[in-house]
Amino acid sequence: MFLALDFVGVFIFAVTGALVAARVRQDFVTCAFFAGMTGMGGGTIRDLLIGAPVFWMGHGWFIAVCLLATLAVWVLRTDQWPGKPLRWLDAIGLSAYCAFGSLKALSFGVDPIPAVVMGVITATFGGVIRDVVAGQPSILMQREIYVTAAIAGATVTVLLSAAGNLNGWIAGTAGAAIALIIRAGAIARGWKLPIHPG
Amino acid sequence: MFLALDFVGVFIFAVTGALVAARVRQDFVTCAFFAGMTGMGGGTIRDLLIGAPVFWMGHGWFIAVCLLATLAVWVLRTDQWPGKPLRWLDAIGLSAYCAFGSLKALSFGVDPIPAVVMGVITATFGGVIRDVVAGQPSILMQREIYVTAAIAGATVTVLLSAAGNLNGWIAGTAGAAIALIIRAGAIARGWKLPIHPG
Amino acid sequence: MFLALDFVGVFIFAVTGALVAARVRQDFVTCAFFAGMTGMGGGTIRDLLIGAPVFWMGHGWFIAVCLLATLAVWVLRTDQWPGKPLRWLDAIGLSAYCAFGSLKALSFGVDPIPAVVMGVITATFGGVIRDVVAGQPSILMQREIYVTAAIAGATVTVLLSAAGNLNGWIAGTAGAAIALIIRAGAIARGWKLPIHPG
Question: What is the C-alpha separation between A150 and C140, in angstroms, rounded?
Answer without folding.
Answer: 29
